[in-house]
Design brief:
Layout: E1 4-8, H1 13-22, E2 25-30, E3 42-49, H2 55-68, E4 73-78, E5 84-86, H3 92-99, E6 104-109
Helix pairs in contact: 1-2, 2-3
């Protein structure tokens, strides 16, 4: 699995990272570069996913599990230069296939964690 960039925001961040750890998915937290405007509060790079299923399947399972945890969550996958997909209603298998071509993933939770 090549590295996959995931854009995270403050809300929902800790649960998302906990799910990655729970599924033995290695990631690096990337600090924003000084002076660079970011579209997300934090960027992580998934570097390795060890699972009985494909590495993309393990990440897809985490994304779907996190997404279903709250109605205020959205996950957006940029598959290539022209394809952006909101994965609500997608199966793990469908998301796995998208991730094989993905450039980046954005995980958004619009409500505070304690809401």
């Amino acid at each position: 699995m090549s590295q996959l960039r995931v854009n995270l925001f403050k809300n929902g961040r800790s649960e998302f990272l906990s799910l990655l750890r729970e599924h033995n998915i290695e990631f690096l937290e990337r600090a924003p570069q000084p002076g660079v405007i970011m579209n997300a509060g934090e960027v992580i790079e998934i570097i390795n996913a060890v699972k009985d299923v494909s590495p993309y399947g393990a990440v897809a399972l985490v994304l779907i599990t996190w997404l279903r945890g709250r109605a205020s969550r959205k996950v957006i996958v940029q598959a290539d230069e022209k394809t952006v997909v909101h994965i609500e209603g997608y199966s793990v298998t469908q998301v796995e296939k998208l991730l094989e071509k993905a450039i980046s993933v954005t995980a958004i939770q619009t409500e505070k964690d304690d809401a």
